[in-house]
Amino acid sequence: xxxxxxxxxxxxxxxxxxxxxxxxxxxxxxxxxxxxxxxxxxxxxxxxxxxxxxxxxxxxxxxxxxxxxxxxxxxxxxxxxxxxxxxxxxxxxxxxxxxxxxxxxxxxxxxxxxxxxxxxxxxxxxxxxxxxxxxxxxxxxxxxxxxxxxxxxxxxxxxxxxxxxxxxxxxxxxxxxxxxxxxxxxxxxxxxxxxxxxxxxxxxxxxxxxxxxxxxxxxxxxxxxxxxxxxxxxxxxxxxxxxxxxxxxxxxxxxxxxxxxxxxxxxxxxxxxxxxxxxxxxxxxxxxxxxxxxxxxxxxxxxxxxxxxxxxxxxxxxxxxxxxxx
Amino acid sequence: xxxxxxxxxxxxxxxxxxxxxxxxxxxxxxxxxxxxxxxxxxxxxxxxxxxxxxxxxxxxxxxxxxxxxxxxxxxxxxxxxxxxxxxxxxxxxxxxxxxxxxxxxxxxxxxxxxxxxxxxxxxxxxxxxxxxxxxxxxxxxxxxxxxxxxxxxxxxxxxxxxxxxxxxxxxxxxxxxxxxxxxxxxxxxxxxxxxxxxxxxxxxxxxxxxxxxxxxxxxxxxxxxxxxxxxxxxxxxxxxxxxxxxxxxxxxxxxxxxxxxxxxxxxxxxxxxxxxxxxxxxxxxxxxxxxxxxxxxxxxxxxxxxxxxxxxxxxxxxxxxxxxxxxxxxxxxxxxxxxxxxxxxxxxxxxxxxxxxxxxxxxxxxxxxxxxxxxxxxxxxxx
Lengths: 326, 383
What we know:
The structure holds 2 protein chains of 2 kinds. The mean pLDDT of chain A is 96. Chain A is built from 11 helices and 9 strands. Chain A is α+β, with helices and mostly antiparallel strands. In chain B, strand 2 (146-149) and strand 3 form a beta hairpin.
């Protein structure tokens, strides 16, 4: 299949349903249904589900550009998480309800921040020894108190009740990390475009600020980071729905490490207007900061990746070829 | 932006080259200490280059008709990756194989192709590139060395400098002014092949801060060249050089210059049994960057394989790659010296200081960091 035939209609739909006004409305507490219902209707939510089970049977690599698109449009719902959850449910022979499904790695009796927890109807919970799809309300979601955040603090005081699925190798965190990495790459790409456009518009000292070499050098680094994020996310999505640890680690380490730099340059170029609520830049930079922390930061993934690397006698290039590019 | 740069995989038939090239590389480095291997693509060994030629590992992406192997850029990527990760001495053929032969193939006459390319593929014709001059570094369009027409061909006067491996090379492809003055900038520049054994050529090696002499001054005094010294069209030098730079800037050599040091450090950590959180995170961070840069370099190679000239993308990979190569010795130096009670092999210590001292050159050679970022800024539409 020509991948543009897949991405273009999806991107067009997101452009229409995830407008900055709609994103702000959901962030302020309006129902996500107007966005979600369109996504359900589109059929894209079953993209990863096998054709036998009524889905499109697409791979993670096929879907990676679409995961990026979710970030570049700052879609206010756990769309990629729902796609993966539906795939895991279908593989286990389970059916599912239509609502948004968030993902969490949780311990009973302990608070956890769940990305998109405020707009989820269900949560696929990794308890270490298996997965449970439970109602989001059972986790007693409360807002994090961070302005505009759709994340929720959740807590299960006893074993959550719901559809039980077998444990997946490595747990849910690696797949959550690659979905987040792809969304971050998408947001980074959006910020690069917005920032380059602004640098060409904004005139100071009698010329567009983009003509200043100091700014050009910083924006070149931003472009390098944005492209590196995209390639890292593609590496993360290069395998199965449950990615190899080294591939997931590479994806989330690179995107998380670059997130702060990318947001910083975007803001530096935009000046004060970029800090204002009414300007759209913050829709994307806020998410980069939040997503950097979600599903493990660069420090978490670097530690795991380094431990795995140090356990091997291979040279670095061979190890990377075998573990990240496999 | 830059969406064409996307994850690509190496074709199986090119991956199949790996075991054979690995064996040849392993033989070449068997007795070399780490700090020699850390010379990476500055290690010169003409015998090794000829062995590679005999074994069929040069001219991989050149046509069979000229002694090449019709394999394309992916095959070269595999071979180069193996050579660099081993630290094999590749300097002798490096420039001819990477740039000069493709340039001659693309812009040369049939006679020039037949004369030079088969010998490059055998590892018997070594090339250098004459670009910088005492007054022209990053501002390459200001070159003053002139080639003037004579009855029989050309006469060249001027000076090149920082010309890598010119003291060992047979030929130099020089960017010269064939008309106008340096005021005319990109106009009036042409590329000529200079036989370095011709009368009037003097090559004087320059010793670098590590004690090596890998580059030199090349003085050109009334050097007479035949009509056939001109490569491509007169006046097209700038255009041809720009296309050439995409070959020069995107390859694995822009990410693997410090990889021998990286591997030696990992072996040290394994030997002393240090794998705590901070150490593991440091190793992991570099591993993630290495993997991502490799993906970017393969993505660039895929554009070359499609016949494109990804100049901006190659600049992007080179700048990010050389930053990685330069941070490695800095971080490894801190890590080792942060554990002063841990014994460090003499070999590793020498390699660390060698790479630390030579690392500033990584973002000078092949286009400085600042120039590359200017090219990327142009790609972003800022200039």
